[in-house]
Design goal:
Blueprint: E1 4-5, E2 10-15, E3 24-30, E4 33-39, H1 52-55, H2 57-62, E5 71-73, E6 80-82, H3 85-103, E7 109-112, H4 114-117, H5 120-133, E8 137-140, H6 141-145, H7 147-157, E9 164-166, E10 173-177, H8 181-184, H9 194-204, E11 206-210, H10 216-220, E12 222-224, H11 231-244, H12 250-256, E13 257-258, H13 260-268, H14 272-279, H15 283-295, E14 299-303, H16 313-326, E15 336-338, H17 339-357, E16 377-378
Parallel strand pairs: 7-8, 10-11, 10-14, 11-12
Antiparallel strand pairs: 1-2, 2-3, 3-4, 5-6, 9-15, 13-16
Helix pairs in contact: 7-16, 11-14, 11-15, 11-16
The protein binds iron/sulfur cluster (SF4).
Iron/sulfur cluster binds at residues 16, 18-19, 21-23, 50-51, 53-54, 185-186, 192.
């Protein structure tokens, strides 16, 4: 879309960066102020999809409480005065130096919210910035709402930020837990057109929505009601079924993972009857779900914030990753794929959309490696 100008306002194509779906939006700007937001149907990435958060970014921009200049605390709680950026930077740098000289980088932590976290310049700069200060503690919105997934990434892949996601475009069987993407769109899955993707999967195969509530998404696809916080027991029952019916990918497990024996022993310590009782799902249903998942070549399991809110969140998130791995769906077309591809996709998309949106292409956004030490993690 090109900019459309009326006598006193101009429409600017841009994007929402409240989450990694990066939905395209059009901002109407008058006298330097955003006065309206609408979905950008011409955006080749999102094709006009946005969620309610994206439609509200204009309100955020114009909020009277929004800070437009640094504020320096001069007394007790709430006692601040505005200062210039130069003064703020000098003051912060001087205080940081004192802390670093005295206690080193371990005394430092960085917190950032979503809008910054999905700004490409920040993504590129944050790791070198922390490294230069000798710091490694980094917290963000995910530290609060999906910490269980970050912990699971660490245990399964050796790095909390090494996320993976279902390859929706090629998937034929998708099992979803703790998510209602028809309302909240595609966070943690990097997909701006979830309904289109899910409809296409349902047309090719199955979309199963595990949720205690008959959510909007559950109503549109196959709803599998589960006891609140019972997801873990469903997954343990599925894992046990894969083991007992020899539906695991032994070659992949043998070559690419370590700790399988421990995970196997742990899963077998839970009987199918216990899994059924604690999940509220019949033994036969759990077994048939596990078989369909394992036997569908292009299949994936995906979990989101809902599973992080109850007990056993980290273990539930880990089992989602582990099931994808042991069933041979990891790194496969239509299965669970890694984040590295995202950045390649993002770079390709930026190359397509960049000139139109007036943004540069980021040459390299790869993340680093480290090692964990938990059963059945991937050899990194
Ligand atoms: S899904 Fe919603 S919050 Fe995320 S980028 Fe799209 S409009 Fe923004």
């Amino acid at each position: 879309m090109t900019q459309t100008r009326t006598s006193d306002s101009v429409e600017k194509p841009t994007f929402c960066r409240l989450c990694e779906a990066y939905c395209g939006i059009v901002a109407t700007v008058k006298d330097g102020k955003v006065i309206a937001i609408r979905p950008d149907k011409d955006n080749p990435h999102s094709l006009g999809h946005v969620c309610v958060k994206g439609m509200a970014v204009g309100d955020l921009t114009n909020d009277p409480d929004r800070l437009l200049t640094p504020m320096k605390r001069i007394g007790g709680p709430g006692e601040f005065v505005p200062v210039s950026w130069d003064e703020a930077m000098s003051d912060i740098a001087a205080r940081l130096k004192v802390i670093l000289d005295r206690d080193g980088g371990d005394a430092l932590a960085l917190y950032h919210g979503n809008p910054v976290g999905f700004a490409t310049d920040f993504v590129v700069a944050v790791k070198p910035f922390l490294k230069a200060l000798g710091a490694h503690k980094r917290y963000h919105a995910g530290s609060q709402d999906h910490h269980a997934h970050l912990a699971a990434n660490y245990y399964a892949y050796g790095d909390a930020e090494r996320s993976s996601f279902p390859d929706l475009v090629n998937c034929d069987f998708l099992l979803m837990l703790g998510t209602n993407p028809l309302v909240s769109n595609g966070s943690l899955v990097f997909a701006p057109r979830m309904r289109h993707d899910l409809d296409a999967i349902a047309a090719r195969g199955r979309v199963v929505v595990v949720d205690p509530r008959r959510s909007e998404t559950a109503r549109r696809y196959e709803h599998l009601p589960v006891e609140p916080a019972g997801d873990l027991w469903l997954l343990l029952g599925m894992m046990r079924t894969l083991i007992e019916e020899q539906l695991v990918d032994s070659r992949f497990i043998g070559q690419m993972t370590e700790g399988w024996d421990d995970l196997r022993t742990g899963a077998l310590s839970v009987s199918m009857e216990e899994a059924a009782a604690r999940s509220g799902i019949a033994v036969e249903t759990i077994q048939s779900l596990a078989r369909d998942f394992a036997k569908t070549e292009r299949a994936a399991i995906y979990g989101r914030l809902g599973i992080c809110r109850g007990p056993h969140g980290s273990l539930t998130a880990f089992l989602i990753l582990a099931l994808n791995i042991v069933a041979g769906k990891f790194g496969k077309k239509g299965g669970r794929v890694r984040r590295q591809n995202i950045w390649r996709n993002l770079q390709r998309k930026l190359a397509e959309c960049g000139p139109r949106l007036g943004v540069d292409v980021i040459p390299n956004c790869a993340v680093g490696d480290s090692h964990g030490g938990i059963p059945c993690r991937l050899k990194v």
